[in-house]
Each structure stands twice: as C-alpha cells, then as structure tokens.
Amino acid sequence: MEDTEFEKRKKMADRLKEELNLSDRVYNAMLKVPRHLFVPYNYRDSAYLDTPLPIGKGQTISAPHMVAIMCELLDLREGHKVLEIGTGRGYHSAIVAEIVGKSGKVITIERVPELAEHAKQTLSSLGYDNVVVIVGDGSKGYEAEAPYDRIYATASAPKIPEPLIDQLKKGGKLVIPVGNYMQELIVVEKNDEIKTKVWGAVRFVPLFGEYGF
C-alpha cells in the first residue's frame, strides 16, 4: 500500500533529524508543514524527496535539508520577527512560521507576483496568518517592518546587502548565500561588531534587485 503524504513527510523528517541532529522545534515544523501543497501539482509525487524542485518562473523550492539547516543556523525562537528574502511558493515561510509561533511574525518578499500570489493563497488556506507576503525587491529588505530578530535569503547575492544588516536588531542573525558560480552560505551576527562565518558551499538561484545581480 502506498504511503500517505503524512507518512512520506515523517520519513523525510525522521531522516533529516538523524542526519542533521535536528532540534525538536525544527523537526516538528518539518513534520507538520505539507510540502506537497507548496510545489506544482505535477511534482507532488517528489515533494518529500530531499531535492530542490522547479516552481516556475525559473525559481526552485529548496531541498528540505537546506531549509532545515538554515533554520538551525538562524536559531529561531518563539516570538521572533523574521524577514525572508525570496518567498517562492511559501514552504520555507511556513516552516519558519511554525517555529516562531503565533506570537512571532514572518515578513516575506518575492519579486515575482505570480509566485507571491501562489504563496499567499497556500499560506492563507493552511492558516498561517502570522506570515505577510510582499511583492518587491527583497535585496533592499523591508524597512517598514524593521528591525528584525532574524533575516535570511533563499537566493544568492553578489555580497551581503547593507540594508539587511541595517535592518537587523542588535543580537540578531542573518543567513544568506553569497557568490555567483562559487557560493557560500554566510552567517552574520550583529552585536557591537558585525561577525561573519562561512557555513559551507551551497547552490542557490541568483538574487536579483538593487543589491543583487
């Protein structure tokens, strides 16, 4: 008998928990969010494979392991206000929304209106009323809701955009891929000084906009 969507999702989450030593809060979010509802219908059979998938307009949904890793690097907590650069169809937004809870808030920016609309509809239908989807240039951040406890980008920038650092709270963290052909995932911590460290090599779609490519 074929596995149900929940059974497939549980196998994926269990595997990631073992391989990445996931925290309970990230594991529980991966277990709860129905990834198959965030991918185009013709890719739903592949929704719980640990791979990126096309979502249209030249964009992709990140592999589940990368979503989980970024959430762990961000050290998300209940009540955090989070800015996401690159909504796609909203899967990563939903994972973060689960972790920060109803007392938290996710502002997510997408430059492609059609993708933003898909994300908005799916997130709304699943009850994620703590996520606000904005159409715009995410490379500039979103000043209207700043400052943020956490910021992350799902597309690779040529360098770390200054507005994102400016819009981060003191004590906040930013996770962003940087580079063109050779990309690295960078973790930024903002205190009295700005500290950066490289997590490792990654592969993301390019970030477009004023501070992108």
CATH class category label: Alpha Beta
Count of the separate structural domains: 1
Outline: globular
Q: How far do the termini sit from each other?
A: 48 Å
Strand arrangement, major sheet? 5-4-3-6-7-8-9
What is the annotated CATH architecture? 3-Layer(aba) Sandwich
Name the helicity range.
Answer: 25-40%
Overall pLDDT, averaged? 96
Biggest beta-sheet profile = 7 strands, mixed
Share in β-strands: 25-35%
Protein name: Protein-L-isoaspartate O-methyltransferase
Active site: 62
Enzyme class: transferase
Function: Catalyzes the methyl esterification of L-isoaspartyl residues in peptides and proteins that result from spontaneous decomposition of normal L-aspartyl and L-asparaginyl residues. It plays a role in the repair and/or degradation of damaged proteins.
Account of the 3D structure:
- It is built from 6 helices and 9 strands.
- It has 213 residues and is α/β, with parallel strands linked by helices.
- Helix 1 packs antiparallel against helix 2.
- One of its GO terms (biological process) is methylation.
Map the helices and strands.
Layout: H1 5-20, H2 24-32, E1 53-56, E2 59-61, H3 64-74, E3 81-85, H4 91-100, E4 105-110, H5 113-125, E5 131-135, E6 148-153, H6 162-166, E7 168-178, E8 183-190, E9 194-202
Parallel strand pairs: 3-4, 3-6, 4-5, 6-7
Antiparallel strand pairs: 1-2, 7-8, 8-9
Helix pairs in contact: 1-2, 2-4
InterPro entries: PCMT (IPR000682), SAM-dependent_MTases_sf (IPR029063)
Subcellular location: Cytoplasm
GO biological process, one term: protein repair
